[in-house]
Design a protein that fits this description.
- This is Replication protein.
- It comes from Pseudovibrio denitrificans.
- The protein is α+β, with helices and mostly antiparallel strands and about 500 residues long.
- The chain folds into 2 domains: about 1-65 and about 70-110 and about 315-445, no CATH class; about 115-295, 2-Layer Sandwich (Alpha-Beta Plaits).
- It is about 45% helix and about 20% strand.
- The protein contains 17 helices and 14 strands.
- The strands form 3 sheets. Strands 5, 6, 7, 8, 9 and 10 form a 6-stranded antiparallel β-sheet that branches. Strands 1-4-3-14-13 form a 5-stranded antiparallel β-sheet, covered by helices on one side. A 3-stranded mixed β-sheet has the order 2-12-11, sandwiched between helices.
- A hairpin with a 2-residue loop joins strand 11 and strand 12 (about 325-330).
Length: about 500
Amino acid sequence: MEVAASSGIGKPSPELSDKLSVSNQSQSERNNHFNCNDWNAYTVCRANTGWFIEDYAWLESNIKNELHETYTARLADILEAGGVSVRKETYVKTICLVTRKVRLSSQYRNCSILPAMARQKLATHKLNLDYWCKHERTAGSELLFFVATVPGVVPAFGELSESACSLSRCISKAAPTIRAEFGCDIVFRSTEFTRRTAEQRGSAVLDQYSPGTMTYHPHANVLIDCSRPLSMARRGKLLRYLRRALGTHVKDCGPIADTSYVTKFSIDPKELLGSNEVTPDEATWLFRELHRINRLQPMGAFKDWCAELGESNYKVAEVRLGGARELVLMDITPKRSRDEGEAQSRREADQTCGEACEREATETLNGDSRARNTKPLLENIILGITKPTCLETQWAAPRVIVIGYTEDPQTEGGKQRLEKINHMSAAVLVWWYESGAPLPEEALAQADELRTEARLSSSSLDINFNCPSTATRKERKEDTNAPGGRCP
């Protein structure tokens, strides 16, 4: 949620404008500069600053974000009415280093029902799975997508977690046989639920429950990596084995090219709201049931790779190379931790941070007796920098994460840290102009114009949270090296 905006949007000086006149040659040199294997937070941030997103894709993403925030706020209200505390007090803000727009950081606790929190974990799994599929799989292998459905539905306040966990255990037990007999490896499993009334599900469910009974139907999305494409006969044999081993109905959805079909919300947020809005009691029950379920589970070779990735202090990141989206491994090892002496100094500094803030606040109050009863003034405490995102404009820009952000600090430390934020903003502006992005105020004006046109347009975007975005679908279609084949 946007709470403020500073007035001083950085403009390049005449000297800087001349320096940043990006020609085709200099832009090509910039792309070549990033064609390297030594990616870290700095190089990824620089490469992605100024990344442009087309009009329709940016509008779709913005509408999705707004709906996420709306649904999250409403579901948080319902959960808190049921006695579950999902909000927290926060003094953390994020400031765009290009436009200087200020937003409050997330005020929600880690809760899988809330879309704003669930999508963070989904994004990490999707990036890892996309990278593994493209770079780590055996050449010529095939990804098959299966959906296993629990035989019956579970009524609200029933044993939902046990039903889902039982299916997950069966999938894990079937994995060794699938590997031995078919030469295939289960690499990912996700759990998903549909929420309907008994009346909406039809006569089969109406025989057991009254029409107004709310029911949940668990199913598992299973991704299987085959070392070589299976013939239709072998696939039919694999399907029959899965049905026998899991004791459920299993659907063969064929090869897939987009991992969005297996990295989805556990429950579509729209199913929890609307005409059949979840009650506080049902939301509390659902929160407790989902808390017991491992909804996103890497398996097999992919699980081993994820473990090795974490131990090596690497993570998967998206970068812009020559205007195209690429996935790379980014080194997240802190520079200081590479030297034990410096790491020890950092730990000692962290331990005395609170004492330093207290002294700073006391000195500011000039020895006033109230200082003993006053909390330390935490001003402009820099926690880190986010990856460049297109929250305000179509051009990506990083944000600095700050505790107690103020442009009028009262402490000496607060003033020094504000100066550091200003220096960071100046450096990011250089990257912004190097990428060919316009002046920040022009980018903001163009974004406002697009939003206005979208509101006035008679057509609306149909947002489906559990389907790939338009931009992703288009990108996958054009990517001839994407794994798998047709999408289900």
